[in-house]
Amino acid sequence: MTAATTVTVTGAAGQIGYALLFRIASGAMLGDRPVRLRLLEIPQAVGAAEGTAMELADAAFPLLESVDVFDDPSAAFDGTEFALLVGARPRTAGMERGDLLAANAGIFGPQGRAINDRASDAVRVLVVGNPANTNALIAAAHAPDVPAERFTAMTRLDHNRALAQLGAKLGVGVGRLSRMTVWGNHSSTQVPDPAHVLLDGEPVGFDPAWVAGEFAPTVATRGAAIIDARGASSAASAASAAIDHLHDWVLGTRDGDWVSVALPSRGEYDVPEGLVSSFPATSAGGEWRVVDGLELSPAVRTALDASVAELAAERDAVRALGLLP
Ligand code: NAD
Ligand code: LMR
């Protein structure tokens, strides 16, 4: 019997948490491995998280070994191998992600420190809570003993949204598409770039006017469109993207394909070192590797520079708030 893997999920009583936990417990994220779940909530929401824990037990997942609920980050991250940092306030209609900086950034320093001090040496972190890229930067900055590349932020939802739009445009299922890229920040400045997309392994080539005028804005504003339609921010699709991200990190990306992942830059594509930016990446052996050598169109280059400028401004804002060590 394989030893159980410890997974910590923050914001466990929230709407993403509710969609995410059952899929982790089912084996959708890590495959056929027993899982120990540790749920972190703020004290006021511990009761609701206990309710979710009761439902997880009632689902009788064969792979689910235990569920524990905490309101203390140090205890919640003790020995954890996978930390999914979801807990943060979502934006509501009319808010931009920048508005969340002050509200949410304060959560990620203490959690980064707790991960540094208590998590497994092999810990891998996915930040979902917004502004996800900058929250990942804050968490990593508070975890000097953990290699920076173990801190990632989620742009897989943007990637999946882009695939959905391309599939609809071409009238094909998304499973036939590969090599989509989203660059930059998980915000309305993100840069969905289908230039390298393959259909059944063959180049497609999309009309630049459609990409710039319809496709990219639709993908980049999809979060706001969901908030308008549902009256709440995306939840099940966000949870599904988190599952995809961790699944591929652990079990590898498909041969010949890549996915979009926000990673601390090592200077790739002239993104300043340390900013957590979305890149095309493959995964093998539990490590992400940025796809190198792609040619960026002038329009993509300009848009990526603007998104990176936004990331730099977010970093400067949290530094000014005293949230970076
Ligand atoms: P929600 O309000 O339903 O749930 C958030 C939960 O986090 C709440 O239960 C709250 O009590 C908890 N929480 C708050 N502070 C916490 C802390 N310090 N420690 C632990 N738990 C804490 O929100 P949601 O819809 O589940 O969204 C969660 C976050 O994910 C939001 O920031 C949202 O904007 C973001 N999000 C990101 C993406 C993405 O693609 N990266 C997609 C969708 C949503
Ligand atoms: C999304 O992309 O759906 C989330 O980041 C929620 C939001 O605020 O857009």
Automatic annotation (TrEMBL):
EC number(s) from the headed UniProt entry: 1.1.1.37
Gene Ontology MF annotations: L-malate dehydrogenase (NAD+) activity
Catalytic activity as recorded in UniProt: (S)-malate + NAD(+) = oxaloacetate + NADH + H(+)
Alphabetized UniProt keyword annotations: NAD, Oxidoreductase, Tricarboxylic acid cycle
Residues that, per the record, bind NAD(+): 11-17, 104, 111, 128-130
Active site: 186
Domain of life: Bacteria
InterPro entries: L-lactate/malate_DH, Lactate/malate_DH_C, Lactate/malate_DH_N, Lactate_DH/Glyco_Ohase_4_C, Malate_DH_AS, Malate_DH_type2, NAD(P)-bd_dom_sf
Ranges for domain Lactate/malate dehydrogenase N-terminal: 6-144
Residues the record lists as binding substrate: 91, 97, 130, 161
Residue intervals of the Lactate/malate dehydrogenase C-terminal domain: 155-318
Top-tier EC class: oxidoreductase
Database matches in NCBIfam families: MalateDH-SF1, PRK05442.1
Role this protein plays: Catalyzes the reversible oxidation of malate to oxaloacetate.
Family: Belongs to the LDH/MDH superfamily. MDH type 2 family.
Protein name: Malate dehydrogenase
Organism, as annotated: Protaetiibacter mangrovi
